[in-house]
Structure formats: C-alpha cells, structure tokens
Specification:
alpha/beta; Rossmann fold; six-stranded parallel sheet; 10 helices; about 15% strand; globular; binds NADP nicotinamide-adenine-dinucleotide phosphate
Length: about 300
C-alpha cells in the first residue's frame, strides 16, 4: 500500500480562502487586519520566511509592515519598536522573526509583546493559557500539525484516542504541541509521548506511535523500521542541505528518510498510512496559521474596542 501524501499547500489554500472571507467582513466593518513583522540581521532562512509571510498576508488581504533591522541593533531599539507596535491600532499582530542575534534576549522580547497581539504565542500568558486548555491564540506550528490531521477529514488521522509521539521538546514545537493535543476536547484528547535527545531507545517509542510528529531538525534520521505499520507521519523538520544541482545551491529536507528501506524492503511511503512532505507539508501550513491568528486577533481587538476595552 502506498501512503496518502498530506499536502500542506492544498490544505492551506482552503483555509486561506476562509480567512480572506473573514478579512473582507472585517474590512466592510472598518477594520483592516494588520501585522507588524520585525526581522533583525540578514540570516537567509529568516529573510525567506518573512518574505513568505508578507506574501501570504497580501494574498488574504491582511496589511503587513516588515521592518528590517541591522544585526547590531541594540535590544532597547527593538523593544521600543515593539512598544510602538503594541500601542498602534493599525497592528493586530506583532511577530519578531527568530532566531535573534545573541545580544538580544529572546525572553524579554517575548514578554514585551502585548499578549493580545502575540500571534506567535510566545508570551508566558499565552503559553500558560494553552497549557490550561483555554488558549486565546494557538502557536502556529503545533496548530499547523493539528489542522493537517483534522482537515484530511479521515477520523483515523484525528488525534482523539490516538497515541501521538512527538520527537523534540522545544518551546516552539514539541512542548506546545504536547500541551495542545493532550487537552480534553474533541479535537485533541490524545495520549502523548514526548521524546528528546535524552530519550533512551528512541525507535522503541516511535514504533508505538499511531501519529508520529518529527521535530528534531536532524535530517533524514527517522527510518522505516522506526515507524508502526499504518502510522501517520508528520515531518516538521526543515534543514537546508547543499545541493549544487538545485536552484540557489541548496534544498530543504525533513527529519524523515524517504529513501531508505527496512528489512522487509519497505519505505516510509510503503509502511505509513499518510505522511507530510518536505517542502510542501507543515511549512506552508505554519504560515497560514500565523494569518489565522492575525485574523482572530483583529476580530478580538475589534470586539474589545466596541466594548470599550483597549488592546
Ligand atoms: P530545536 O529547538 O533545536 O529542538 C529540537 C528538539 O529535537 C530538541 O528537543 C532536541 O532534544 C530534539 N532532538 C534533536 N535531535 C534529536 C535526536 N537525534 N533524537 C531525539 N531528539 C532529538 O528545534 P525546533 O525549533 O523545535 O525545530 C525543529 C525542526 O523543525 C527544525 O528543523 C526546524 O527548522 C523545524 N521547524 C519547522 C517549522 C515549519 O513550519 N515547518 C516550524 C518550526 C520549526 P533536546 O531538547 O534534548 O536537545
């Protein structure tokens, strides 16, 4: 049997249509959803991510402003810019692209963004709300994973009642995904296992997963023998590897090895029920979920303004 390929690009297209309708409704009521995106330095991957986010915002009708700061920009300058964004009613969302230069404290930056405009969900208030099962906004990559599972419209892919194994425990992906999927609600209700570099016998755990989420940033390290027959495999990992034959001299690969075969001559595509490709899987969905949060933040802040509660 060959697995279903879960294309983030296709699922994104449907969600973006829906978001564009909500943006039109907001615009007709006098609110133009806006996002402020700040990038510090000239890391090529960050530049490409921000370009993609800016382009997707425009497609949906969200106004985005990209501010590019030099690598040696002092922390206080960045914090002042965030402070202005917090006060400016034109911006419903504020995003500071990671990674930041080492002289800038990422925690202070996260704490400075107004939680109502925190479309990346790094503010401790939003992290806490997620953990308590009462999220205001949902972190983009974990939300991307959830929507890929739900929107395939196949109950066998839904997290409810499944054993979900996440490899990776970062604050960006692994931990918030575990917090999201363990909640007692219809869309989650999974049994979670979180693995990391201290996990002994990783393949023992991955081979028990009904749904395996790989978020290590360790290219092609998940092999066919490490997965269960009919598992759903979601590959969050993205690593740039040099490839002189590719445009730009590099290409993107995920954490899952689609080339190797196990003792029964099976590849991941032979064994899994479904998997996400890299590129074209979780990546485009993550960008779409950022727009989802921006639209939701705009709707919420509009309501707050109507009720006389300021953002
Ligand atoms: P990270 O902060 O470096 O975290 C990686 C996690 O994986 C850590 O918890 C680490 O364990 C664990 N890990 C690494 N190698 C391992 C191994 N061999 N066995 C078991 N665990 C291992 O990375 P991240 O920010 O979460 O990102 C992970 C990957 O996802 C990266 O490739 C990143 O580019 C990608 N990503 C993609 C998207 C998207 O939209 N597609 C979004 C975000 C991130 P320790 O905690 O013990 O170190």
């Amino acid at each position: 049997m060959s697995a279903t390929v879960l294309l983030g690009t296709e699922i994104s297209a449907r969600i973006k249509q829906d978001l564009a309708t909500r943006v039109n409704a907001l615009r007709s009521e006098g609110t133009v959803p806006g996002i402020l995106m700040i990038r510090v330095g000239d890391d090529p991957a960050s530049m490409s991510y921000v370009r993609q986010k800016d382009k997707t915002a425009a497609e949906i009708g969200i106004v985005s402003k990209v501010v590019e700061l030099a690598y040696d920009t002092p922390e206080r300058t960045l914090l002042a810019l965030i402070g202005h964004g917090n006060e400016d009613p034109l911006y419903h969302g504020i995003l500071v692209q990671l990674p930041l230069p080492s002289h800038i404290n990422q925690k202070i930056v996260a704490n400075t963004i107004n939680p109502l405009k925190d479309v990346d969900c790094f503010h401790p208030q939003n992290v806490g709300r997620l953990l308590m099962g009462d999220p205001y906004l949902i972190p983009c990559t974990p939300h991307a994973v959830l929507q890929i599972l739900l929107q395939a419209n196949k109950p066998s892919y839904w997290p409810e009642g499944k054993h979900v194994v996440v490899v990776g425990r970062s604050n960006l992906v692994g931990k918030p995904l575990a917090a999201l999927l363990v909640q007692k609600n219809l869309y989650a209700n999974a049994t979670m296992t979180v693995c990391h570099s201290g996990t002994r016998n990783l393949s023992h755990h991955t081979a028990q997963a009904d749904i395996l989420v790989c978020a290590m940033g360790s290219p092609r390290s998940i092999k066919p023998f490490m997965i269960k027959e009919d598992a759903v495999v979601i590959d969050v990992g993205v690593t740039r590897i040099e490839d002189p034959s590719a445009k730009g001299g590099y290409r993107l690969v995920g954490d899952v090895d689609h080339e190797s075969i196990d003792d029964d001559f099976a590849t991941i595509a032979d064994k899994a029920a479904a998997y996400t490709p890299v590129p074209g899987g979780v990546g485009p969905m993550t960008v779409t979920m950022l727009m989802w949060n921006t639209v939701k933040a705009a709707e919420f802040q509009r309501l707050g303004a109507q009720l006389g509660v300021s953002a």
